[in-house]
Amino acid sequence: MNYIDRDKARDTLALMKRGNSTQINGMRIEFDENGNFITWSGLKSGICTPSVKKVVGYLFGDFENQKKGIGIDLLPNDTLLKIAKAFYRRARKWDSQIADSFNHDEYPADDVLLMEIINSLSWLDFDGFAVIDKSAVSVLYQDAEEPENFTHDPKEVPALVSEHELGCGGIVQIDCISTTNISKKRLYCIYEMKTDGSMEGALKMCESPEEAEKILAANMEQINAHEADQCASYVEYEEEQKNASNYFLNFPNIRRAALLLWTDNGMINREEPLSEKEVLLWRWMTGLDQEYLARVNTALNFSDEDLATICNGEETEAQELLANEEAEAFLNLVFNEEYEPK
Asked: CA 325 to CA 338: how far, in whole Å?
């Protein structure tokens, strides 16, 4: 038999007319009336395709793409060769023509065997199934009550069971599970931040490290911008604290009364420290009538003990001491946190 290469085979197929047939490297190719190529193997099974390219790929060992096409790409070629040889051995028992064509230990070339077995499997419907090599299946021994305890080694099964569980005739249930890893793909996980400046985000599973690094760079831009804003805000806040401290020099009694109200009612805490409360009060007071505030400040000119009674003592006693409706109304506004931003 004269062996021809891929290019010569392609030219031969391209020149065929409908109804013609030819031999290429021991394989019979027919070009039927419908414009389809039918490739016949030694096992008398054929593959039908309208494409010259696919026929050439079939004839010259484009096995991997063919395997993907019929869903058996997880089976290595050496496994398929074993299947093909087993099929030949069985075929000899019932097909006299095959039995006469080769001796007991002879098989066609590996590429022919692969071609034939892939062709045979192509008639089966593997859609929705993953065909795998049996050697890829492993056994998992898992504690039925504590599934986080498991092993693939039967010698380690006793380690799954504590002695006290088996003592006094106890029974421990172990699930024996046949399992396999169909495929493995590494993902690169990263926290992807939103672009709205909220510093919120969600887990992103990237297909490549380049994709993850791109997200990381975008995250760092946001973090740096946020830290810069925080730094600017902190400088501005420090300036406001200084302004508030200077402002309360003119209203010391209001500041004393506010501090008594805040401390007695638990309004100063980790979330709202004293410095923040004073800044909020200062911002609010700068929008009020300053002469009115001066009158309130004068009305609150009491000793520490009396001012504590006015702010946090019994209501009747506090009213008798203060006896100033304007100052009393102001203290109620502070107690109700009217200075908080709306």
From this structure: 18
Please state, in angstroms and rounded to a whole number, the distance separating the CA atoms of residues 189 and 24. 52
Distance of CA 238 to CAs 165, 230, 235, 289, Å?
A: 65, 12, 5, 25
SS3 66: helix
Instruction: Quick: pLDDT tens for 16-62.
Output: 888 888 888 767 888 888 888 887 755 445 566 667 877 777 777 66
The model's pTM is 0.38
| Cα–Cα distance for residue pair 175/145, rounded to 1 Å | 10
Q: How many Å apart are CA 313 and CA 311, to the nearest integer?
A: 6
Of 248, 1, 35, 17, give the one whose Cα is nearest residue 109: 1
Q: Is the pLDDT of residue 332 over 60?
A: yes
Percentage helix, strand, coil, to 5, in the chain? Answer: 55, 15, 35
* DSSP strands (E only) in the chain: 21-24, 27-31, 37-40, 46-49, 138-143, 150-151, 174-179, 188-193, 201-206
Q: Which residue(s) pair with 48 in the sheet?
A: 38
Residue 331 pLDDT greater than 50, yes or no? yes
